[in-house]
UniProtKB/TrEMBL annotation:
<keyword id="KW-0378">Hydrolase</keyword>
<dbReference type="GO" id="GO:0004635">
    <property type="term" value="F:phosphoribosyl-AMP cyclohydrolase activity"/>
</dbReference>
<comment type="pathway">
    <text>Amino-acid biosynthesis; L-histidine biosynthesis; L-histidine from 5-phospho-alpha-D-ribose 1-diphosphate: step 3/9.</text>
</comment>
<keyword id="KW-0028">Amino-acid biosynthesis</keyword>
<dbReference type="InterPro" id="IPR038019">
    <property type="entry name" value="PRib_AMP_CycHydrolase_sf"/>
</dbReference>
<protein>
    <recommendedName>
        <fullName>phosphoribosyl-AMP cyclohydrolase</fullName>
        <ecNumber>3.5.4.19</ecNumber>
    </recommendedName>
</protein>
<dbReference type="Pfam" id="PF01502">
    <property type="entry name" value="PRA-CH"/>
</dbReference>
<dbReference type="GO" id="GO:0000105">
    <property type="term" value="P:L-histidine biosynthetic process"/>
</dbReference>
<dbReference type="InterPro" id="IPR002496">
    <property type="entry name" value="PRib_AMP_CycHydrolase_dom"/>
</dbReference>
<keyword id="KW-0368">Histidine biosynthesis</keyword>
<feature type="domain" description="Phosphoribosyl-AMP cyclohydrolase">
    <location>
        <begin position="33"/>
        <end position="68"/>
    </location>
</feature>
Length: 68
């Protein structure tokens, strides 16, 4: 088990293996976006300290800022 997996034991993924990820401004709490993460994108986020999501439309990992 990786260090990233140890940090996410209580996350409940849905039947498609996804969990909603709400992105907020750290200063005022404004919601900036809703995206989805699977286990791989969450693990990459925890390891890289950069945001990775799962694109439901493209069915691939999405590195925020790289393609949008």
């Amino acid at each position: 088990m990786t260090n990233a997996e140890l940090r996410m034991p209580n996350i409940k993924f849905d039947e498609k293996g996804l969990v909603p990820a709400i992105v907020q401004d750290y200063k005022d709490g404004t919601v900036l976006m809703l995206a989805y993460m699977n286990k791989e994108s969450l693990q990459k986020t925890l390891e890289a300290k950069e945001m990775w999501y799962w694109s439901r439309s493209r069915k691939e990992l999405w590195h925020k800022g790289e393609t949008s």
